Fold this sequence. Notes:
Blueprint: E1 7-9, H1 14-26, E2 31-34, H2 38-45, E3 53-56, E4 66-69, E5 72-76, H3 81-87, H4 91-97, H5 103-106, H6 111-116, H7 125-130, E6 134-139, E7 142-147, H8 148-151, E8 163-170, E9 178-183, E10 194-201, E11 204-210, E12 217-218, H9 220-226, H10 233-242, H11 256-280
Parallel strand pairs: 1-3, 2-3
Antiparallel strand pairs: 4-5, 5-8, 6-7, 6-8, 9-10, 10-11, 11-12
The structure holds flavin-adenine dinucleotide.
Flavin-adenine dinucleotide binds at residues 32-40, 57, 77-78, 100-101, 105, 108-110, 112-114, 116-117, 119, 121-123, 163-164, 191-192.
Amino acid sequence: MIPVNFAYCRPGTPEEAVQAYEGYEKAGKKTWYYGGGSEIISMARVGSITPEAVVDLKEIPACCELKEEGGHINMGGALSLRAIADSQCFPLLGKAVGRIADHTNQCRITLGGNLCGTIIYREAVLPLLLAEAQVSLQGPSGVRRLPLQEVFDGRMQLLPGEFILKVHVPKRYASMPYFHVKKAPTEKIDYPAVSLAAIIEKGRLRIAFAGICTYPFRSKEMEEALNDTGMTIEQRLNKAVELLPEEPADDAHCSRGYRQLLFENMVGQALMELSKASEAGAGA
Length: 284
Ligand SMILES: Cc1cc2nc3c(=O)[nH]c(=O)nc-3n(C[C@H](O)[C@H](O)[C@H](O)COP(=O)(O)OP(=O)(O)OC[C@H]3O[C@@H](n4cnc5c(N)ncnc54)[C@H](O)[C@@H]3O)c2cc1C
Protein backbone atom coordinates (compact mmCIF):
# COMPACT_ATOMS: atom_id res chain seq x y z
CA MET A 1 0.00 0.00 0.00
CA ILE A 2 1.12 3.55 -0.72
CA PRO A 3 0.68 5.49 2.52
CA VAL A 4 -0.12 8.86 0.86
CA ASN A 5 -2.80 10.23 -1.46
CA PHE A 6 -1.66 11.47 -4.85
CA ALA A 7 -3.32 12.91 -7.93
CA TYR A 8 -3.35 10.70 -11.03
CA CYS A 9 -4.07 11.77 -14.58
CA ARG A 10 -3.96 10.01 -17.91
CA PRO A 11 -3.82 12.61 -20.70
CA GLY A 12 -4.49 11.73 -24.37
CA THR A 13 -1.91 14.00 -26.03
CA PRO A 14 1.72 14.95 -25.34
CA GLU A 15 0.75 18.62 -24.93
CA GLU A 16 -1.90 17.75 -22.33
CA ALA A 17 0.68 15.70 -20.46
CA VAL A 18 3.06 18.65 -20.22
CA GLN A 19 0.20 20.97 -19.23
CA ALA A 20 -0.89 18.57 -16.49
CA TYR A 21 2.70 18.19 -15.25
CA GLU A 22 3.23 21.94 -15.14
CA GLY A 23 -0.19 22.52 -13.54
CA TYR A 24 0.56 20.10 -10.69
CA GLU A 25 4.05 21.54 -10.19
CA LYS A 26 2.66 25.08 -10.09
CA ALA A 27 0.17 23.92 -7.47
CA GLY A 28 3.19 22.81 -5.38
CA LYS A 29 2.76 19.09 -6.00
CA LYS A 30 5.89 16.97 -6.57
CA THR A 31 5.06 15.35 -9.90
CA TRP A 32 6.34 12.30 -11.80
CA TYR A 33 5.74 11.15 -15.35
CA TYR A 34 4.50 7.59 -15.07
CA GLY A 35 5.35 4.72 -17.46
CA GLY A 36 4.82 1.22 -16.08
CA GLY A 37 4.90 2.55 -12.53
CA SER A 38 6.97 -0.37 -11.23
CA GLU A 39 9.71 1.84 -9.82
CA ILE A 40 7.47 4.73 -8.73
CA ILE A 41 5.11 2.37 -6.89
CA SER A 42 7.86 0.32 -5.21
CA MET A 43 9.70 3.45 -4.08
CA ALA A 44 6.48 5.12 -2.86
CA ARG A 45 5.53 1.97 -0.93
CA VAL A 46 8.74 2.05 1.08
CA GLY A 47 8.62 5.84 1.47
CA SER A 48 11.78 6.63 -0.51
CA ILE A 49 9.70 8.97 -2.72
CA THR A 50 6.45 10.74 -1.95
CA PRO A 51 4.71 11.48 -5.24
CA GLU A 52 1.97 14.07 -4.95
CA ALA A 53 0.90 13.73 -8.59
CA VAL A 54 1.63 11.36 -11.46
CA VAL A 55 1.03 11.89 -15.18
CA ASP A 56 0.52 8.52 -16.86
CA LEU A 57 1.83 8.49 -20.45
CA LYS A 58 0.21 5.26 -21.63
CA GLU A 59 -2.94 6.81 -23.13
CA ILE A 60 -0.92 8.97 -25.53
CA PRO A 61 -0.94 7.25 -28.95
CA ALA A 62 2.52 8.61 -29.94
CA CYS A 63 3.98 7.16 -26.73
CA CYS A 64 2.70 3.69 -27.66
CA GLU A 65 3.67 3.81 -31.32
CA LEU A 66 5.85 1.16 -32.92
CA LYS A 67 6.30 1.72 -36.62
CA GLU A 68 8.80 2.21 -39.40
CA GLU A 69 8.92 5.60 -41.04
CA GLY A 70 11.53 7.43 -43.11
CA GLY A 71 14.29 4.87 -42.60
CA HIS A 72 13.75 4.77 -38.82
CA ILE A 73 12.01 2.45 -36.41
CA ASN A 74 9.99 4.71 -34.11
CA MET A 75 9.27 3.42 -30.62
CA GLY A 76 7.06 5.27 -28.16
CA GLY A 77 8.42 5.97 -24.69
CA ALA A 78 5.50 4.12 -23.07
CA LEU A 79 5.93 0.88 -25.04
CA SER A 80 6.46 -2.10 -22.79
CA LEU A 81 9.73 -4.01 -22.97
CA ARG A 82 7.77 -7.14 -23.89
CA ALA A 83 6.05 -5.40 -26.83
CA ILE A 84 9.48 -4.37 -28.13
CA ALA A 85 10.95 -7.85 -27.71
CA ASP A 86 7.93 -9.56 -29.32
CA SER A 87 7.92 -7.20 -32.29
CA GLN A 88 11.45 -8.26 -33.36
CA CYS A 89 11.77 -4.75 -34.81
CA PHE A 90 15.37 -4.46 -33.58
CA PRO A 91 16.59 -7.92 -32.55
CA LEU A 92 19.50 -6.72 -30.39
CA LEU A 93 17.21 -4.42 -28.41
CA GLY A 94 14.69 -7.27 -28.14
CA LYS A 95 17.40 -9.51 -26.72
CA ALA A 96 18.58 -6.88 -24.22
CA VAL A 97 15.11 -5.98 -22.92
CA GLY A 98 14.06 -9.64 -22.97
CA ARG A 99 16.69 -10.21 -20.25
CA ILE A 100 15.36 -7.44 -17.97
CA ALA A 101 13.21 -8.77 -15.09
CA ASP A 102 10.70 -11.56 -15.80
CA HIS A 103 7.94 -11.82 -18.41
CA THR A 104 5.27 -10.31 -16.14
CA ASN A 105 7.39 -7.28 -15.29
CA GLN A 106 8.48 -6.87 -18.93
CA CYS A 107 4.79 -6.43 -19.81
CA ARG A 108 4.74 -3.50 -17.42
CA ILE A 109 8.16 -1.82 -17.54
CA THR A 110 8.33 0.78 -20.32
CA LEU A 111 11.17 1.87 -22.56
CA GLY A 112 11.04 5.42 -21.14
CA GLY A 113 10.89 4.08 -17.58
CA ASN A 114 13.96 1.90 -18.11
CA LEU A 115 15.95 4.77 -19.64
CA CYS A 116 14.89 7.32 -16.99
CA GLY A 117 14.64 5.15 -13.88
CA THR A 118 16.90 5.41 -10.86
CA ILE A 119 18.07 1.79 -11.08
CA ILE A 120 21.56 2.19 -12.47
CA TYR A 121 21.59 -0.49 -15.19
CA ARG A 122 19.23 1.00 -17.81
CA GLU A 123 20.09 -1.87 -20.10
CA ALA A 124 17.78 -0.78 -22.94
CA VAL A 125 20.16 2.08 -23.62
CA LEU A 126 23.02 -0.18 -24.77
CA PRO A 127 21.63 -1.18 -28.21
CA LEU A 128 20.28 2.36 -28.67
CA LEU A 129 23.71 3.93 -28.14
CA LEU A 130 25.25 1.46 -30.59
CA ALA A 131 22.62 2.20 -33.22
CA GLU A 132 23.02 6.00 -33.07
CA ALA A 133 19.39 6.31 -31.95
CA GLN A 134 17.70 9.68 -31.65
CA VAL A 135 15.12 10.71 -29.07
CA SER A 136 12.13 13.01 -29.33
CA LEU A 137 11.66 14.78 -26.02
CA GLN A 138 8.38 16.54 -25.31
CA GLY A 139 8.56 19.48 -22.96
CA PRO A 140 7.07 22.88 -22.17
CA SER A 141 8.76 24.39 -25.27
CA GLY A 142 7.56 21.66 -27.64
CA VAL A 143 9.45 18.70 -29.06
CA ARG A 144 13.21 18.51 -29.52
CA ARG A 145 14.68 15.61 -31.50
CA LEU A 146 18.35 14.92 -30.95
CA PRO A 147 20.94 12.13 -30.83
CA LEU A 148 20.48 10.00 -27.73
CA GLN A 149 24.19 10.24 -26.95
CA GLU A 150 23.83 14.03 -26.56
CA VAL A 151 21.29 13.61 -23.76
CA PHE A 152 22.49 10.37 -22.23
CA ASP A 153 25.49 10.70 -19.99
CA GLY A 154 25.16 7.68 -17.72
CA ARG A 155 21.57 8.80 -17.24
CA MET A 156 19.06 10.84 -19.24
CA GLN A 157 19.65 14.58 -18.93
CA LEU A 158 16.12 15.92 -19.36
CA LEU A 159 15.00 19.52 -18.98
CA PRO A 160 12.37 20.25 -16.31
CA GLY A 161 8.95 19.00 -17.44
CA GLU A 162 10.35 16.93 -20.34
CA PHE A 163 9.57 13.30 -21.07
CA ILE A 164 10.61 10.74 -23.71
CA LEU A 165 7.99 10.80 -26.40
CA LYS A 166 9.73 8.50 -28.88
CA VAL A 167 13.01 6.78 -29.67
CA HIS A 168 14.08 6.55 -33.32
CA VAL A 169 16.47 3.82 -34.47
CA PRO A 170 17.97 3.96 -37.98
CA LYS A 171 16.58 0.85 -39.65
CA ARG A 172 19.90 -0.29 -41.08
CA TYR A 173 21.19 -1.16 -37.59
CA ALA A 174 18.37 -3.65 -37.04
CA SER A 175 19.84 -6.09 -39.55
CA MET A 176 23.53 -5.88 -38.60
CA PRO A 177 25.23 -8.84 -36.88
CA TYR A 178 25.03 -8.45 -33.11
CA PHE A 179 26.08 -10.07 -29.89
CA HIS A 180 24.50 -9.80 -26.46
CA VAL A 181 25.48 -11.41 -23.20
CA LYS A 182 24.35 -10.70 -19.67
CA LYS A 183 25.82 -12.34 -16.58
CA ALA A 184 24.09 -12.09 -13.24
CA PRO A 185 25.78 -13.28 -10.03
CA THR A 186 23.28 -16.03 -9.21
CA GLU A 187 19.92 -16.32 -10.95
CA LYS A 188 19.29 -15.86 -14.67
CA ILE A 189 16.67 -13.20 -13.82
CA ASP A 190 18.60 -10.67 -11.79
CA TYR A 191 20.33 -7.34 -12.12
CA PRO A 192 23.46 -7.71 -14.24
CA ALA A 193 26.95 -8.14 -12.82
CA VAL A 194 27.94 -7.23 -16.38
CA SER A 195 25.78 -6.80 -19.47
CA LEU A 196 27.35 -6.37 -22.92
CA ALA A 197 25.78 -5.45 -26.24
CA ALA A 198 27.72 -5.28 -29.50
CA ILE A 199 27.07 -4.65 -33.17
CA ILE A 200 29.43 -5.46 -36.01
CA GLU A 201 29.35 -2.77 -38.65
CA LYS A 202 31.67 -2.95 -41.67
CA GLY A 203 33.92 -5.43 -39.86
CA ARG A 204 34.20 -3.19 -36.78
CA LEU A 205 32.91 -3.84 -33.31
CA ARG A 206 30.69 -1.31 -31.54
CA ILE A 207 30.29 -2.19 -27.87
CA ALA A 208 28.39 -0.92 -24.81
CA PHE A 209 28.12 -2.08 -21.20
CA ALA A 210 25.99 -1.95 -18.07
CA GLY A 211 26.81 -3.29 -14.62
CA ILE A 212 30.61 -3.20 -14.88
CA CYS A 213 30.61 0.48 -13.75
CA THR A 214 28.02 2.46 -11.83
CA TYR A 215 26.41 3.65 -15.07
CA PRO A 216 25.88 2.27 -18.58
CA PHE A 217 28.18 3.52 -21.33
CA ARG A 218 29.54 3.11 -24.84
CA SER A 219 33.22 4.00 -25.20
CA LYS A 220 34.53 4.85 -28.66
CA GLU A 221 38.11 4.79 -27.31
CA MET A 222 37.58 1.24 -26.12
CA GLU A 223 36.13 0.34 -29.52
CA GLU A 224 39.26 1.74 -31.20
CA ALA A 225 41.46 -0.47 -29.04
CA LEU A 226 39.32 -3.58 -29.51
CA ASN A 227 39.30 -3.12 -33.29
CA ASP A 228 43.09 -2.64 -33.43
CA THR A 229 44.29 -5.79 -35.15
CA GLY A 230 47.89 -4.64 -34.59
CA MET A 231 47.48 -5.81 -30.96
CA THR A 232 47.06 -9.36 -29.69
CA ILE A 233 43.73 -10.34 -28.16
CA GLU A 234 45.33 -10.24 -24.71
CA GLN A 235 46.69 -6.72 -25.31
CA ARG A 236 43.28 -5.58 -26.51
CA LEU A 237 41.57 -7.02 -23.43
CA ASN A 238 44.09 -5.34 -21.11
CA LYS A 239 43.56 -2.06 -22.94
CA ALA A 240 39.78 -2.42 -22.60
CA VAL A 241 40.15 -2.78 -18.81
CA GLU A 242 42.44 0.28 -18.74
CA LEU A 243 39.89 2.29 -20.70
CA LEU A 244 36.97 1.61 -18.36
CA PRO A 245 35.56 5.02 -17.40
CA GLU A 246 35.84 4.10 -13.73
CA GLU A 247 36.95 1.13 -11.63
CA PRO A 248 34.62 -1.86 -11.85
CA ALA A 249 31.78 -1.51 -9.38
CA ASP A 250 32.16 -3.28 -6.05
CA ASP A 251 28.98 -3.88 -4.06
CA ALA A 252 26.96 -6.48 -2.18
CA HIS A 253 25.60 -7.71 -5.52
CA CYS A 254 29.01 -8.59 -6.98
CA SER A 255 32.67 -8.01 -6.11
CA ARG A 256 35.02 -5.83 -8.20
CA GLY A 257 37.32 -8.74 -9.00
CA TYR A 258 34.51 -11.00 -10.21
CA ARG A 259 33.03 -8.21 -12.32
CA GLN A 260 36.40 -7.60 -13.97
CA LEU A 261 36.83 -11.31 -14.67
CA LEU A 262 33.38 -11.47 -16.27
CA PHE A 263 34.11 -8.32 -18.26
CA GLU A 264 37.33 -9.76 -19.73
CA ASN A 265 35.62 -13.03 -20.51
CA MET A 266 32.64 -11.40 -22.19
CA VAL A 267 34.74 -8.95 -24.22
CA GLY A 268 36.86 -11.94 -25.31
CA GLN A 269 33.66 -13.63 -26.53
CA ALA A 270 32.67 -10.47 -28.43
CA LEU A 271 36.10 -10.44 -30.13
CA MET A 272 35.58 -14.06 -31.16
CA GLU A 273 32.21 -13.12 -32.66
CA LEU A 274 33.96 -10.29 -34.52
CA SER A 275 36.53 -12.63 -35.99
CA LYS A 276 33.83 -15.19 -36.97
CA ALA A 277 31.84 -12.43 -38.66
CA SER A 278 34.92 -11.18 -40.50
CA GLU A 279 35.68 -14.70 -41.76
CA ALA A 280 32.07 -15.06 -42.92
CA GLY A 281 32.19 -11.59 -44.52
CA ALA A 282 29.21 -10.48 -42.36
CA GLY A 283 28.70 -6.89 -41.25
CA ALA A 284 30.60 -5.72 -44.31
C1 LIG B 1 11.65 -7.21 -10.96
C2 LIG B 1 12.48 -6.13 -11.63
C3 LIG B 1 13.70 -6.47 -12.19
C4 LIG B 1 14.46 -5.50 -12.86
N1 LIG B 1 15.63 -5.85 -13.47
C5 LIG B 1 16.29 -4.96 -14.23
C6 LIG B 1 17.45 -5.33 -14.98
O1 LIG B 1 17.90 -6.46 -14.92
N2 LIG B 1 18.04 -4.38 -15.75
C7 LIG B 1 17.57 -3.09 -15.84
O2 LIG B 1 18.10 -2.29 -16.62
N3 LIG B 1 16.50 -2.71 -15.11
C8 LIG B 1 15.87 -3.59 -14.31
N4 LIG B 1 14.77 -3.21 -13.59
C9 LIG B 1 14.53 -1.77 -13.44
C10 LIG B 1 13.44 -1.23 -14.32
O3 LIG B 1 13.82 -1.25 -15.68
C11 LIG B 1 13.24 0.24 -13.85
O4 LIG B 1 12.82 0.23 -12.51
C12 LIG B 1 12.27 1.04 -14.69
O5 LIG B 1 12.33 2.38 -14.23
C13 LIG B 1 10.85 0.62 -14.55
O6 LIG B 1 10.12 1.14 -15.65
P1 LIG B 1 8.66 1.69 -15.47
O7 LIG B 1 8.13 1.96 -16.83
O8 LIG B 1 7.87 0.77 -14.60
O9 LIG B 1 9.02 3.03 -14.73
P2 LIG B 1 8.16 4.04 -13.80
O10 LIG B 1 8.09 3.47 -12.42
O11 LIG B 1 6.89 4.41 -14.45
O12 LIG B 1 9.13 5.30 -13.84
C14 LIG B 1 10.47 5.23 -13.42
C15 LIG B 1 11.09 6.60 -13.63
O13 LIG B 1 11.15 6.91 -15.02
C16 LIG B 1 10.43 8.11 -15.30
N5 LIG B 1 9.76 7.91 -16.59
C17 LIG B 1 8.93 6.90 -16.95
N6 LIG B 1 8.61 7.02 -18.25
C18 LIG B 1 9.22 8.14 -18.71
C19 LIG B 1 9.27 8.80 -19.97
N7 LIG B 1 8.64 8.32 -21.07
N8 LIG B 1 10.00 9.94 -20.09
C20 LIG B 1 10.68 10.43 -19.01
N9 LIG B 1 10.67 9.86 -17.79
C21 LIG B 1 9.95 8.71 -17.65
C22 LIG B 1 9.48 8.30 -14.13
O14 LIG B 1 9.14 9.66 -13.94
C23 LIG B 1 10.32 7.74 -12.99
O15 LIG B 1 11.24 8.71 -12.54
C24 LIG B 1 13.99 -4.15 -12.92
C25 LIG B 1 12.77 -3.82 -12.31
C26 LIG B 1 12.02 -4.78 -11.69
C27 LIG B 1 10.69 -4.39 -11.11
